[in-house]
Specification:
Two copies of one chain form a homodimer. Helix content of chain A is 48%, strand content 26%. By secondary structure, chain A is α+β, with helices and mostly antiparallel strands. In chain A, strands 1, 2, 3, 4, 5, 6 and 7 form a seven-stranded mixed sheet that branches. In chain A, helix 3 crosses helix 4 and helix 7 packs across helix 8. At the A-B interface, strand 5, helix 2 and helix 4 of A face strand 5, helix 2 and helix 4 of B. Chain A binds a DNA duplex through helix 8.
DNA sequence: CGCGTAATTGAAAAGTATCAACACTGGTGG
DNA sequence: CCACCAGTGTTGATACTTTTCAATTACGCG
């Protein structure tokens, strides 16, 4: 649900303090502000320092599907920098958010020369694949009520922190269905 | 749908011919035979040389969800070797299949010492994340007929090569629904 | 206060699953 | 050679789930 990666964030802060002051810059985004746009070329890696953002795809029919919510330490842009393709999702702050930016060249240099960073990135990618596979499998093979209960169990503050619309887009359902199930459950 | 990775397969064959004869072994699997079992510890990386396999998760309620179909050059076991977790899916041959096995230690050594292999693996992970995200987003935000049409467009031989049951499990629907939509479309 | 956005709800329509019956196919053994 | 069997595929009827649409209410903020 809300992914974090404190280990990577710590490592990045250490890098910034030891010779990478210039190549690691810090930025902020207000609510609703996009830090990365779908279908554009990406020239940097980004890491969230603090805040909360949604990572979503806008489909050909205009629907949005939220891939994940990103908290501290979550990375975006890495897929695009590795494959060289244009971005396939948008990253948008849902609370005021600060994040680091690392230019493409510095990212590739780190990957090549810094074994620790290389390992952190491999682990990050592998963990994300695993997490997404489990989530999508669960949602495809269970009904709404079960998927929602699983979500609330994993992330109890769900309804306080994230709008109904975003929750619905995360589950791939209409807000009407979400409301119906929420009401059923509360009975 | 059916993923392949000829670049990685070629590189692996070259490795095997140049000093890795002993650590890269070749095996075969008949139809229905499992090459990797869900919820077990993994001690090797596997790469399909020739054939076709399904990668699927069995959920707590007994349902199967097919993550992907793997053709030549596709890799499995890499997520588990990187994260150290037990496997989250099963890999099962759906036609007679041959595959390479690379022990954990050799895999990690390659990752560390062979920059080309390291890059190939990063690209593989990034490509898989991207592909899965696009597929799941599409399926979540479109109806069955649209998802099926997209699938047939991407992979026209679909119905000849893969059983209805597997197609249904790939789309996360019942075979009854698949048949209904197929009949509607053919009208 | 007034505005825009988010949330809620009902009714009807559309989509999908479940269940059950039956057809087709490729083995296997008598 | 044929009867049988298990697995896969097909189809109809029905029940259930989810969406769509539209109307209303609640809420945060300038």
């Amino acid at each position: 649900m809300i992914r974090v990666n404190q280990e990577l964030l710590n490592y990045l802060i250490r890098l910034k303090d030891s010779g990478y002051q210039d190549s690691i810059t810090e930025h902020t985004a207000g609510i609703g502000e996009k830090m990365l746009h779908q279908r554009t070329y990406i020239h940097s890696l980004y890491v969230i320092k603090e805040g909360l953002a949604k990572c979503f795809l806008t489909l050909d029919n205009g629907n949005d599907f939220i891939q994940e919510f990103f908290g501290a330490g979550e990375v975006f842009g890495e897929i695009e920098l590795i494959t060289g393709d244009i971005s396939f999702c948008t990253i948008e702050a849902i609370i005021p958010t600060t994040y680091y930016q690392i230019p493409k060249a510095a990212f590739h240099q780190l990957l090549k020369d810094d074994a620790v960073f290389n390992t952190l990135l491999l682990r990050l990618l592998a963990t994300n694949i695993r997490y997404a596979a489990l989530r999508h499998s669960y949602n495809q093979t269970h009904n709404l009520e079960e998927s929602l209960n699983r979500l609330k169990k994993e992330f109890p503050e769900l309804l306080q922190k994230i709008s109904k619309k975003d929750i619905a887009n995360y589950l791939g359902i209409s807000t009407r269905s979400l409301n119906r199930v929420l009401k059923e459950v509360s009975k």
